[in-house]
Design goal:
Largest sheet of chain B: 7 strands, mixed
Strand content of chain A: 15-25%
Distance between the termini of chain A: 51 Å
Oligomer: heterodimer
Mean pLDDT of chain A: 97
Order of helices and strands of chain B: EHHEHEHEEEEHH
Number of strands of chain B: 7
Radius of gyration of chain A: 21 Å
Helix content of chain B: 10-25%
Structural class of chain A: alpha/beta
Radius of gyration of chain B: 16 Å
Low-confidence stretches of chain A: none
Largest sheet of chain A: 5 strands, parallel
Structural class of chain B: alpha/beta
Bound molecules: iron/sulfur cluster
Number of helices of chain A: 15
Strand order of the largest sheet of chain B: 4-3-2-1-5-6-7
Shape of chain A: globular
Chain lengths: 432, 187
């Protein structure tokens, strides 16, 4: 029987040859990810259910990456980090990345890739909805709640419904004014925030395979914004090169059978697409940047797991070089590695960091920062009636802080161009 | 688990995401300390824009200012309830505030799983958009065994979609209770 890549990976994790869409299967989990917001309650449930002296199923397979509320005075947030530290010590977890040490990484989904945890063919569950990001590596990654995570901590197993798949094919050569963010916002506008609920979103086509890993992660990252269970891109030589550089572990490459069944198939030619934004207050509220280009903004924000990777800042720096921003522009590298690369990577002969600083941007330390609002002293938090153009992934009411503020989701190219003019601006204006 | 749930309706629109259910700034409280847990009830649904809180009129907060529990126990909503983050604090805060069931047109997957596996609230689906007819404050009665919901105020009744595969987990009170019963936790 023909299967999609998602079915094949779930079948492997269920020790089966074949799994059918719609059936509930018990899976053996390869990696469990948690962070500072959901780790402490997960550990509480684990202890309550398995006993205070219980040991986790496999310390090597648990990755704890604090990233959400890091640089804040909020004492509850500090307590959460203490709880992670305590549990990790007690359980001898080798993959804990403590705050305030040189092991600290930053945003978990980007750090997972950098640290070599993403391996084709494997199954990852995480207490964060954007765990689907890792699907860019030809693996299954999805978000779960604390109770499910506590269950995995004790047993290494979880049930999941095998999803139907939707396929999104992008053909053609990516123009320099488009980024992966434009592709995924295009899809969201087409299918809506519940257009892929309980399904796998598979990305394919020559334009997708021309993208570097970081841009592929932007596509899979926002599968959840359409309600998707997972986003997935089959591994190719770009994936293998990235993985081999960062991990010595074995992996297995799966691909969808040519005659596999799909719920639906969408085809796009990238040359026909335009830079787009998702206007407040929903990621599917798509408009071409040109159609809203007179909209005044009060801030620009470039950061998060979906928009704070090195490739995002390379794109932003290409626009901002030699220019000055006219609204406060907040830069949040996703991880320490990204932050360091800003100093060493050059765009037109200059370090990215210098380009961004010369343009008037403020660069913060790596973490989730204002992507999800956070405590009142969080860097870049929206205030009052702010209208923020942002490379993040969500713009529901109140997402970046103020309940009265609006967020326009856009590519780093558009966020940088808009920062210069103070209005939503098509990056083509600066690329000529 | 009782087979009847009766209480007042609280009506919401579509795409109620987890930031509206429990805004991110409140995720820092302990989920086990009883005093701090009460805060999750206090702030349940506090992120819903006030004009859309408690339809059709709006301006009716789920939990009144200064209180920790809601007078409403059944939430009625449109499609895609619980979209957004994976925070289990969301269904938990609804439970702490006193909600027993949600009746929506559809749910985001993680929120749905959390409701069921954590045993917080029962997530029912309906084919009809009940949030167009039910009014906040209506007295509702859900019959779990017969998959029906009655609006006692308006004297109408509707069918609920069967819980299907998750019925047994719901009736056990969550995934741990279910796994124990089925001997899945021996590994
Ligand atoms: S950067 Fe934003 S979306 Fe990504 S994990 Fe952090 S809070 Fe979530």
């Amino acid at each position: 029987m023909a299967q999609t890549i998602t079915q094949k990976i779930l079948a492997r994790a269920a020790n089966r040859k074949f799994v059918e869409t719609g059936e509930n299967v018990w899976l053996n989990v390869d990696i469990l990810l948690t962070h500072d917001v959901c780790g402490p309650p997960t550990f509480d449930i684990f202890k309550e259910k398995f006993g205070s002296g219980a040991k986790v199923w496999d310390p090597e397979k648990i990755v704890v990456l604090p990233d959400h509320y890091i640089f804040t005075e909020n004492e509850h947030a500090h307590r959460n980090i203490d709880l992670l530290r305590k549990f990790s010590k007690e359980q001898n977890l080798p993959n804990y990345y403590d705050v305030g040490t040189d092991r600290y990484k930053g945003v978990c989904h980007v750090a997972l890739a950098e640290e070599g945890y993403n391996l084709p063919g494997t199954v990852l569950f995480g207490t964060d909805s954007h765990t689907c990001t890792s699907g860019a590596f030809g693996m299954f990654g999805t978000g779960i709640g604390n109770t499910d995570a506590a269950f995995i901590l004790g047993t290494g197993k979880i049930w999941e419904k095998v999803p139907e798949s939707m396929k999104f094919i992008f053909e053609g050569q990516m123009p320099d004014y488009l980024a992966a963010k434009d592709l995924i916002l295009q899809i969201l506008g087409d299918i809506g925030t519940d257009g892929a609920t309980y399904r796998a979103m598979e990305f394919d086509g020559s334009a997708v395979y021309s993208l570097p890993m970081e841009e592929r992660m932007t596509l899979t990252n926002m599968a959840i914004e359409a309600g998707g269970m997972n986003g997935i891109i089959a591994a190719d030589n770009v994936t293998e090169a990235y993985v081999q550089e960062r991990s010595g572990k074995p992996y297995e490459i799966f691909k969808s059978d040519p005659d596999a069944d799909y719920h639906s198939i969408y085809r796009y030619r990238v040359e026909e697409l335009e830079p787009v934004v998702a206007m407040p207050h929903s990621p599917d509220n798509r408009a071409t940047v040109r159609s809203v280009q007179d909209t005044r903004i009060t801030k620009s924000y470039i950061g998060s797991c979906t928009g704070g990777k090195l490739s995002d800042f390379v794109m932003a720096a290409g626009i901002l070089k030699g220019k000055t921003v006219s609204v406060p522009t907040n830069i949040v590298p996703a991880t320490v590695e990204v932050a360091q690369s800003l100093e060493t990577e050059l765009v037109e002969g200059q370090p990215i960091k210098k380009i961004l600083e010369d343009a008037g941007c403020t660069i913060a330390r790596p973490s989730c920062a204002a992507c999800l609002g956070g405590p009142s002293d969080t860097f870049g938090r929206s205030e009052d009636n702010d209208l923020v153009v942002s490379t993040t992934n969500r713009n529901f009411p109140g997402r970046m802080g103020s309940k009265k503020a609006g967020v326009c989701l856009a590519s780093p190219l558009t966020a940088a161009a808009s920062a210069i003019t103070g209005k939503l601006t098509d990056p083509r204006e600066f690329l000529r | 688990m009782d087979s009847i749930i009766q209480g007042k309706a609280y009506v919401l629109g579509k795409n109620i995401d987890t930031d509206q259910i429990i805004p991110a700034e409140h995720l820092v409280y302990s989920l086990s300390d009883p005093e701090e847990v009460k805060l999750y009830g206090k702030y349940a649904l506090s992120g819903v824009p006030i004009a859309e809180a408690g339809l059709p009129e709006g301006n009716r907060p789920f939990v009144e200012n200064g209180k920790f529990e809601s007078e409403y126990s059944i939430i009625i909503a449109g499609p895609n309830f619980g979209c957004g983050s994976s925070r289990e604090h969301a269904p938990f805060s609804l439970q702490v505030a006193g909600a027993k069931a949600i009746v929506a047109e559809s749910y985001a997957r993680i929120f749905y799983r959390n409701c069921v596996d954590g045993g917080f609230v029962i997530p029912y689906e309906t084919a009809e958009a009940l949030n167009k007819t039910v009014m906040t404050g209506d007295e509702l009665k859900i019959d779990i065994d017969n998959n029906t919901i009655e609006n006692l105020t308006q004297e109408t009744a509707y069918t609920l979609k069967p819980l299907g595969d998750v019925y047994n987990i719901v009736m056990s009170g969550g995934i741990f209770a279910y796994a124990k019963k089925e001997n899945l936790m021996s590994s």
